Amino acid sequence: MDLSIKTTTYGQDNQSWLGAAHGTDDGVGITLDTSAFTSGTHYPDGFFLSGIPLGKITATGLYGPYNNSASDGTEVCAGHLLSPVKAPSSTSVDVQGVLFHHGTVVEANLPVSIDSDGKTDGAGRIKYI
């Protein structure tokens, strides 16, 4: 039996991008394609940041970062990552997350910016303030 003292450090997520609680109880379970993300931008501290705009990769059904100039399905913003997800040590391992697909988003507080086309993709479901 190991009775030595262990220390665990927990990070803190910044969900100030959420404009209201509406929609947070109705997220959709998704799988993130880890290889589609950039470590320093999307998971700088070992966690995919909540609020990242996401698009669905047509060929696989997995989700990657929204990219308006892409042509793989991620050029359509499907929503935002609702809560942080621990990034795996290998980009070949995909992880589960939750898609925030309707509600209010404080655009200025998103961890990664979204363009006007991305906001238009969510019109009627997501209100950007």
Structure description:
- The protein is mostly beta strands.
- It has two helices and nine strands, in the order βαβββββββαβ.
- The strands form three sheets. A five-stranded antiparallel β-sheet has the order 1-7-5-3-4, with no helix packed on it. The chain has a two-stranded antiparallel ribbon with strand order 2-6.
- The protein starts with 27 loop residues before the first strand and ends with a strand.
- The model has no long low-confidence stretch (mean pLDDT 93).
Question: Which features does this protein show?
Answer:
129 residues, mainly beta, 5-stranded antiparallel β-sheet, two-stranded antiparallel sheet, 9 strands
Please outline what is shown here:
8% of the residues lie in helices and 24% in strands.
SSE pattern: EHEEEEEEEHE
Biggest sheet, spatial arrangement of strands: 1-7-5-3-4
Largest sheet: 5 strands, antiparallel
Helix content: under 10%
Strand segment tally: 9
Quickly give the structural class: mainly beta
Structure annotation, total helices:
2
Envelope shape? globular
CATH architecture: Beta Barrel
Low-confidence spans: none
β-sheet strand percentage: 15-25%
pLDDT averaged residue by residue: 93
**Total discrete domains:** 1
Per the CATH scheme, the topology name is: Virus Head Decoration Protein, Chain: A
CATH top level? Mainly Beta
Distance between the termini: 54 Å
Radius of gyration: 15 Å
Describe the secondary structure blueprint for this structure:
Blueprint: E1 28-32, H1 39-42, E2 47-48, E3 53-56, E4 63-65, E5 79-81, E6 85-86, E7 95-100, E8 103-105, H2 116-121, E9 126-128
Parallel strand pairs: 8-9
Antiparallel strand pairs: 1-7, 2-6, 3-4, 3-5, 5-7
